[in-house]
Each structure stands twice: as structure tokens, then as C-alpha cells.
Write a structure and sequence with these properties.
alpha+beta
């Protein structure tokens, strides 16, 4: 599975990228597994990933969701940290 991965706000700052393409290895079955993969690639994400929402193909997901349900040629992951505003 290939994921166009987009980082927003504090996640973008932690990674140093706005987006990248990630080849998800076989055996990465759930969103929780994907979080582990992201932390291995970008240890700086540790400070924001736990509080961030993840969206696959523009749908919010939870850690128990299966990645296979979102596989496709245009698969996209968005990492959206909490934001504050006034």
C-alpha cells in the first residue's frame, strides 16, 4: 500500500515536511500499526501523534480500523493535530 501522507500544523513542524509518500510494508494491518510506523520514521512526531486525528481518504479513523479498507491507487493519509484558536 502506498499512502500520500499529509502533515498539518504541529505535525508538519515535527516532521519537517508538508507531505511525503510512504510505502506501507506488508503486515501493517491497522491504523495503530500505521501510527507505530510513522513514529519509527519520524521520532519527532511522538510529541503530537497521540493527540492527533488521522484521516484516511478523507474519513476520520480510529486505531482499530483496518488499512485494507482504504487501499487504492489514490490512498491518502492526513495527520491533523489539535489546533487552538480564538
Amino acid at each position: 500500500m502506498r499512502l500520500r501522507t499529509r502533515y498539518f500544523a504541529a505535525a508538519r513542524d515535527a516532521v519537517g515536511l508538508a507531505e511525503e509518500t510512504i510505502d506501507v510494508p506488508a503486515g501493517t494491518g491497522t491504523v495503530a500499526d500505521l501510527r507505530t510506523l510513522l513514529l519509527a520514521r519520524h521520532p519527532g512526531l511522538a510529541r503530537v501523534l497521540g493527540q492527533s486525528r488521522l484521516a484516511l481518504n478523507q474519513r476520520f479513523v480510529v486505531d482499530s480500523d483496518l488499512l485494507s479498507a482504504f487501499d487504492g491507487p489514490d490512498a491518502e493519509l492526513a495527520i491533523i493535530p489539535p489546533v487552538a484558536g480564538g
